[in-house]
Design a protein that fits this description.
The complex is a heterodimer of chains A (652) and B (169). Chain A is α/β, with parallel strands linked by helices. Helices cover 28% and strands 24% of the residues of chain A. Chain A has 18 helices and 34 strands. In chain A, the strands form twelve sheets. Chain A has a five-stranded parallel sheet. A five-stranded parallel sheet of chain A has the order 20-27-21-22-23. Classes of the chains: A alpha/beta (652), B alpha/beta (169). The interface between A and B is large, with 59 and 57 residues.
Chain lengths: 652, 169
C-alpha cells in the first residue's frame, strides 16, 4: 500500500505545541508511507486540494490526516479522498489537536505523542479495506414526540410538505405550556389566540395522526426505518364517540378534583376536558378522583352521555407505528420551589409560582381573568415578583439561566397593571436578561411606563404579617436591607427538563446533559440533530427556550426531516459486522448478545448452521465481535487485526 | 527523535466513540491540561472490548490500560457497556493470576459532556501509573499475594454487585 500522511498545523492550534514538521518527517520512516507533509489548514479548500494532488502525484492508496478530532472532520476528509478516487474508508485520522496539542504544553512530549498517534493510524490504515454502502428504502413518515408549540410547528411543517405525521402527546390535549399562558411577551399577543389556530390545524390535517394521552413505550430500528410502540393510556371515554359536549363535566358529582391545568389553583370535575380550546376536545375520567372507581357506585356520566362514550372497563392499548424519522419536542417542566423553604411556597397560599399567576391572569383561568389572590379572593394592592427561583443557583443544582423568567416577570407585571391599574409591582432580580428582538424595550416599558419597581438583590425571607406577606431582601444598588409588604408574591420559577426526559432518551438512544436536557450533535453547528441518526430535537427539551426559538427549532427539525426524505433511499454505514463462515462454529452467542436482532441463522448446503449479519440492521457496535469465541464475526473497519495493530504500534 | 526509545510511560486508552471519545474531545476543546501519558484508540463501543486487548496491551509493555465508555444505561447501542462492565470487572480480577498488576488497568464511564471529569480520570490514573513506574512485564509484578487487596481498594468503576445480572454472557 502507498500511504500519504498529512499533518495539520491548524494555524497555531497544533503547531504551537507540536512540531508538525518533525511529525511529518518521522512518518516517512513508517511502513508503506511514501509521502508526508505538514500544512497550515488541511481542512481548507486548498488543504483538501493538496491531499487530492498528492493522491494523484504519488499514486496514494490510503491517506492519514493528523489533525483535529475525527468527530469534527472525518466526514470532510473522507469526501475529499473519495473525490480523488479513493474509497472513503481508505482514510484514517490521528487526533493531535483535542487529544494532544490542546491538553499539554510540553512540545517535546506532545510531538512524541503525535508521532505515535500517526504511527497508530498508519498501522490501522494498512489493514483497512474498501467498504461500500448499501442503500435501504426510507419510510417517509415522521414521528413527533410532544405536542407543545415546537412539536406542533414541526408536525405542521412536515404535514404541509405532504408527509404522514404521527404526533404523540402525553397529556390529554396538545398545546403544551403555551396553552397555559395568558399573553406572550413582548407583543402581549393572546397566547391561545395565536396557538389555537395551529392546534386546530393539527386536528384538521388529514395526514397528521394524533395520539393524545399516549406515551412512547419503545423505539427500535434505525434512521429511515424506526418501529415505535405507543401506549394509549385509558381515558375511560371512547374518543371516537365523544363529541366534547361537556355534559358529563356539568353533571359529575366529584367537583372537587384538583385542576392540574389551572396549576392546582381551582377545582374541576373527575371527568374533564382540560380547557375550552383543547385538541382533541374529548373528555377523560381522572381515575383517582372518580367516585365510581372509588366506591363502585355513581355512573352519572355514563347515564348522561348522549353518545354512550363512557366505558369504565377501558384499558391501556398499544399501537405500533412505523416511521423513518423522529422529532423530539418534549419541552420542559417548571422548577418546584419547595427547596426554597424560606420563600414559603406551598405553605402560604399567597406565595405562588409564575405559571400559577399566568392562570390567574387568563380569562379561562380559575378566577375568570380577575386578578385575585388565592387565600381570600381579595384584589392585591402590592405584588412582589422574585426572579431566579431555581435559576442561576448552584445550591439547588440549577446553575443555568432559564432565559425566559426576566421577560415573563416584566409581562406579568404589565398585565397586572392592566388588570388592576392601582396595583404596585416590585421585582427582585439579579440581572435583567433580555437579549431578544424588542425584549429590552419591553422591560424598559415595564419600568418606565408601568412604573414597575425593579430592586436589584436576592430575597432572603418571605413571611406573613397580618393578612399580608413581608418580603425581606437586599437592595445591592442601595447597599441596604429592604422590606416590602405585599398581598401576593410571585416566584419566577425556572425551567428544568421535562419529567421522564431521561427515560425517553434511553429509549431513543440519544444523550442528555446532567440536568436532563437533550444533547445536540454540535452546540453551534448542528443544533437540531442528535448523535443518533434520524432523531432530531425541537424546543425546550434541548435547553431553556422562549416561544420564537422553539418555533424556529420546530421548523428547523422539520426541514432536516424533509431533507432526509427528499431521497428515496439512504446509504447505510458499511462499518458493520461480517461473518467468516469457514470459521463460524454456529454457537449462536452473537445472536443472543446482539442488541438489534441483526444476526440470524443461515443453513449451508451441507446442513451446518452459520450466523449471518443483516447489514441494514447492524449498527456496528462490535459486541458480537468481542463475544465470538473463534472470532469468526468481525466488525469491519474495527477488526481484531486492526485494533491489535494499533496496540502493537503503541506498545511493541 | 524516535518515539520508541524514550523512557516515557505509556497508557493505552480504549474509548467508545460516542461518549468518552467525545468527552476527551470536550476536555481538549476546554483546554483542560492532562499528563501526556495516554494514547487513545477509538472503538465504537466498550462492548467491542475484547478482554484480550487489555491483557495483550499489558503483556506487550503498556504501563497502563484505561477503558472508558458511556455511563451505564446511556449506551449508544443500549446495552454494550453492560456487557463491557461484566467483562472488564472479570479481567481486572483475572490479571493477578497471570502476574499482571491489576492497578495498571482501570475502567470507567465518562460522557461526551464531562470534559472536566475526563481530565480528572486521566490525571488520577496517570498519577497511579507514574507511582507504579514502568511495567516490568508478564509475571514480573509481585502482586499475586496482595492482589485481592489491590482489587478491593482500587475497585475499578466500583459497584461489583451490580455487575451480576440474570442475563448470562
Amino acid at each position: 500500500m502507498r500511504i500519504g500522511v498529512f499533518v495539520c498545523q491548524c494555524g497555531t492550534n497544533i503547531a504551537s505545541t507540536v512540531d508538525t514538521g518533525a511529525v511529518a518527517q518521522r512518518a516517512l520512516d513508517y511502513p508503506d508511507v511514501v509521502f508526508a507533509t505538514d500544512y497550515m489548514y488541511t481542512c481548507s479548500e486548498p488543504g483538501q486540494q493538496e491531499i487530492q494532488k498528492a493522491i494523484a502525484e504519488h499514486r496514494l492508496q490510503g491517506v492519514v490526516v493528523a489533525a483535529c478530532s475525527p468527530r469534527m472532520h472525518e466526514a470532510t476528509f473522507r469526501r475529499a479522498v473519495e473525490k480523488a478516487g479513493l474509497n472513503r474508508y481508505m482514510f484514517e485520522m490521528a487526533n493531535i489537536r483535542e487529544h494532544v496539542s490542546w491538553i499539554g504544553q510540553d512540545k517535546g512530549a506532545n510531538t512524541l505523542k503525535a508521532m505515535e498517534l500517526v504511527r497508530m493510524a498508519v498501522e490501522k490504515l494498512r489493514r483497512n479495506e474498501p467498504l461500500f454502502a448499501s442503500e435501504v428504502p426510507i419510510n417517509k413518515r415522521v414521528l413527533v414526540i410532544g405536542g407543545g408549540v415546537a412539536g406542533i410547528q414541526a408536525a405542521l411543517d412536515c404535514a404541509d410538505a405532504g408527509l404522514d405525521v404521527v404526533l404523540v402527546e402525553r397529556e390529554q390535549s396538545i398545546g403544551g405550556k403555551m396553552a397555559k399562558l395568558d399573553k406572550t411577551f413582548p407583543t402581549i399577543d393572546c397566547s391561545s389566540c395565536i396557538l389555537g389556530p395551529k392546534m386546530v390545524d393539527v386536528a384538521q390535517k388529514e395526514n397528521i395522526t394524533l395520539h393524545a394521552y399516549s406515551e412512547v413505550e419503545a423505539v427500535s430500528g434505525y434512521i429511515g426505518n424506526f418501529t415505535v410502540k405507543i401506549r394509549k393510556k385509558a381515558t375511560y371515554v371512547d374518543w371516537d364517540a365523544c363529541t366534547g359536549c361537556g355534559l358529563c363535566m356539568e353533571k359529575c358529582p366529584s367537583k372537587k378534583t384538583v385542576d392540574r391545568f389551572n396549576e392546582n389553583l381551582g377545582t374541576t370535575s373527575a371527568i374533564q376536558i382540560p380547557f375550552p380550546q383543547a385538541i382533541p376536545k374529548k373528555a377523560r375520567i381522572q381515575k383517582d378522583a372518580c367516585r365510581y372507581f372509588a366506591t363502585g357506585k355513581c355512573k352519572v356520566c355514563q347515564k348522561i352521555c348522549p353518545t354512550n362514550a363512557i366505558h369504565y372497563d377501558m384499558e391501556d392499548r398499544e399501537v405500533v407505528e412505523e416511521v423513518g424519522a423522529i422529532i423530539v419536542a418534549t419541552g420542559y417542566d417548571l422548577f418546584d420551589p419547595a427547596p426554597y423553604g424560606e420563600y414559603g411556597a406551598g405553605r402560604y397560599p399567597d406565595v405562588i409560582t409564575g405559571i400559577q399567576f399566568e392562570r390567574i391572569l387568563s380569562a379561562s383561568g380559575p378566577f375568570g381573568g380577575h386578578v385575585k389572590r388565592p387565600s381570600d379572593g381579595k384584589e392585591p394592592k402590592d405584588i412582589v415578583f422574585v426572579a431566579c427561583v431555581g435559576s442561576r443557583d448552584k445550591s439547588v443544582d440549577r446553575p443555568y439561566c432559564s432565559g425566559i423568567c426576566c421577560m415573563y416577570i416584566a409581562k406579568q407585571a404589565i398585565l397586572a397593571r392592566d388588570h388592576l391599574p392601582g396595583v404596585q409591582c416590585y421585582v427582585f432580580y439579579m440581572d435583567i436578561r433580555s437579549p431578544g428582538k424588542n425584549y429590552d424595550e419591553f422591560v424598559r416599558r415595564a419600568i418606565e411606563e408601568y412604573g414597575v419597581q425593579y430592586i436589584r438583590g436576592r430575597v432572603g425571607k418571605i413571611y406573613p404579617r397580618g393578612d399580608r406577606m413581608v418580603v425581606q431582601g437586599a437592595d445591592t444598588l442601595l447597599g441596604a436591607q429592604v422590606e416590602v409588604e405585599a398581598d401576593l408574591v410571585v416566584l419566577a420559577t425556572g425551567v428544568e427538563s421535562s419529567r421522564g426526559a431521561k427515560e425517553l432518551a434511553e429509549k431513543l438512544r440519544i444523550s442528555y446533559d446532567q440536568y436532563g436536557f437533550y444533547m445536540e450533535s454540535h452546540p453551534k453547528l448542528r443544533p437540531v440533530e442528535t448523535n443518533t441518526a434520524g432523531v432530531y430535537l425541537a424546543g425546550a427539551c434541548q435547553g431553556p427556550k422562549d416561544i420564537p426559538a422553539s418555533v424556529a427549532q420546530g421548523s428547523a427539525a422539520a426541514s432536516k426531516v424533509l431533507a432526509l426524505f427528499a431521497r428515496d433511499t439512504i446509504a447505510t454505514d458499511p462499518q458493520v459486522a461480517g461473518v467468516l463462515e469457514s470459521v463460524c462454529i454456529g454457537c449462536g452467542k452473537c445472536l443472543s448478545v446482539c442488541p438489534f436482532g441483526a444476526i440470524q441463522w443461515k443453513t449451508l448446503r451441507d446442513g451446518s448452521r452459520k450466523a449471518e449479519v443483516l447489514e441494514t440492521v447492524c449498527q456496528g457496535c462490535g459486541l458480537c465481535n468481542a463475544t465470538c469465541p473463534p472470532k469468526a464475526i468481525q466488525l469491519k473497519h474495527f477488526t481484531d487485526d486492526q485494533i491489535l495493530a494499533e496496540l502493537d504500534a503503541l506498545c511493541a | 527523535m524516535d518515539e520508541k526509545n524514550d523512557k516515557q510511560l505509556r497508557i493505552v486508552g480504549f474509548l467508545c466513540n460516542w461518549c468518552s471519545y467525545g468527552g476527551a474531545d470536550t476536555a481538549g476543546v476546554c483546554r483542560f491540561k492532562q499528563p501526556p501519558l495516554l494514547r487513545i484508540i477509538r472503538i465504537p463501543c466498550t462492548g467491542r472490548m475484547d478482554p484480550l486487548f487489555v491483557v495483550k496491551a499489558l503483556a506487550q509493555g503498556a504501563d497502563g490500560v484505561l477503558v472508558s465508555g458511556c455511563h451505564p444505561k446511556d449506551c449508544h447501542y443500549a446495552v454494550g457497556n453492560f456487557y463491557a462492565r461484566r467483562r472488564l470487572e472479570l479481567v481486572k480480577r483475572f490479571l493477578p493470576f497471570v502476574g499482571l498488576d491489576p492497578r495498571r488497568f482501570h475502567y470507567t464511564w465518562v460522557s461526551a459532556s464531562e470534559g472536566q471529569r475526563w481530565q480528572q480520570v486521566v490525571s488520577e490514573f496517570s498519577a497511579v501509573i507514574q507511582e507504579l513506574g514502568p511495567n516490568p512485564g508478564f509475571g514480573q509484578d509481585a502482586v499475586t499475594e496482595n492482589a485481592p487487596q489491590a482489587v478491593s481498594s482500587q475497585g475499578g468503576a466500583g459497584d461489583t454487585e451490580r455487575c451480576i445480572s440474570p442475563r448470562s454472557l
